[in-house]
Amino acid sequence: MKRRLLTASYLLAFLISPFVHADSLPSWNDTAPKKAIIEFVERVTKEDSPDFVPLAERIATFDNDGTLWSEQPLYFQLLYIFDVIKAKADERPEWRETEPFASVLRDDAKAVLASGEEGIVKLLSVTHSGMTTDEFAESVSRWIATAKHPTTGRLYTEMVYQPMLELLSYLRANGFKTYIVSGGGAEFVRQWAEQVYGIPPEQVVGTYGRMEYEIREGHPVIVKLPELALNNDKAGKPIGIQTFIGRRPTVAFGNSDGDFEMLEWTTSGKGARLALVLHHTDSEREWAYDRESHIGKLDRSLDAAPSKGWIVVSIKDDWNTVHPGAKP
Amino acid sequence: MKRRLLTASYLLAFLISPFVHADSLPSWNDTAPKKAIIEFVERVTKEDSPDFVPLAERIATFDNDGTLWSEQPLYFQLLYIFDVIKAKADERPEWRETEPFASVLRDDAKAVLASGEEGIVKLLSVTHSGMTTDEFAESVSRWIATAKHPTTGRLYTEMVYQPMLELLSYLRANGFKTYIVSGGGAEFVRQWAEQVYGIPPEQVVGTYGRMEYEIREGHPVIVKLPELALNNDKAGKPIGIQTFIGRRPTVAFGNSDGDFEMLEWTTSGKGARLALVLHHTDSEREWAYDRESHIGKLDRSLDAAPSKGWIVVSIKDDWNTVHPGAKP
Hints:
homodimer; about 325 residues
């Protein structure tokens, strides 16, 4: 009798396989986006499907800031910069009188952002260059292990999205190679992406600077230079994808206008493609912002989504959990 | 009785496991390099070994020209350039009067090389830029499928080294991610590396140029620009490795002074590392050249090998087969 029951439930499972697969995404509500994701993955992974995508071509690219982890009140890498500048301030007394350093030391994020690209470049040059890759890696690793988010008090690695962790695992279980394609720094994200997302350094595409190989005291080092090599944002994202991966993604997921071209490049390829846009709609459990935001502005991508077939995911409506371990 | 024999042979196989593994490398003679490779791979893959390297960190990088396939009488990518220039010559009558195009059309490789970097850049600009990545991919794919090597008359893909194909497979079977790190063009190598070496596009690091994202007749394309972004040769190789892979290799294999820094960067890392240098010593089955060669010059790396612990592989002495399907 028990065996017959087992058989019956096996058959049932087979008949309702989308719902069985749905267990891989427990933090997603049973709304349209989850159904579309599962339907798509099944369509491209079944060998007899006309939309079958061979294993080697299953590339999924994810933006990081605002897509895999939060990005408010400021991009977390900018908060890293703030912390490094503050830690170095005693050695550099002139910073108290020099912008944008003085604004950083006063915690005046608005003034820092108002300093524009020129200001950001100054901050990057003292925090992201002039050291070896090993020294930078150590600094980021130490920060990410201890620094706390200014409003939630949580570790930054706890500010990742639980539904996205599940989606990454679900895609990998279906043979996808998951990539980060971030406007943030590749070397910054690589220090913790493997531990947090299961994404190894070689699958992190990001903004990167020029580097130099040098022998110091008989040992080779790689030194980070202040010049930008690729700004992996907007139209830079398809370029980063082509340069690093050399294949057009099958799946792409972003959250802002900085992801427009990545999504466009993905869905204009032949064959089945899936593009998703995360819409920050939940002011209670996370943040709510889109067209007017200075961080993660979502305007053009939101308008384009319906006509381009991009799926808009609303945090408020489509996720039952936001951050891991948070109250549902 | 039969079963007992099987058991005995199983035990025997277990006791002489290095020789069983050796079967993975049948085109390698039982000389020192093969023994060193097998000994190294066993040392880093056994979980109880003090030199154990976790799966995620098993990165093996291979130079391409002269390491995975031949590079005489000229780098094959240069022969591709020659073929493309000749095919376009009718549309560009002025090339008959302009260097280095005129030398290409006269098949005067020496004069082309004598035109130096300036000449090569001119050739690259008309053969490797000004088209979309899709157009370039199609051109290379067509060429590699049909063009023949000038002295052997074989397809270029038949000019790969059988012992290296075996080594790539052996490393992959032991959990290594195999990468190409080539001074040649990344986009050039990516068109055929997966089919020929089993190395997917995203594991090809090479010289690359700037690119531009553009909408043409409503469809996005990526256009190859004439400016160089990274010359992935000499000190550029560790930079390419850091930029694309973000991890120091465990194994690196090169054949020329252009690989010096890649080998140096690899073996100066902590823990067990293996570096190999292919020495072209076989004028009968392949080519013999080293210190005086204009292509694949091997001088500094050959001198450095003994003191740095890099293993020199002699084609004549250490390989019983060179190209696949060739007479042993």
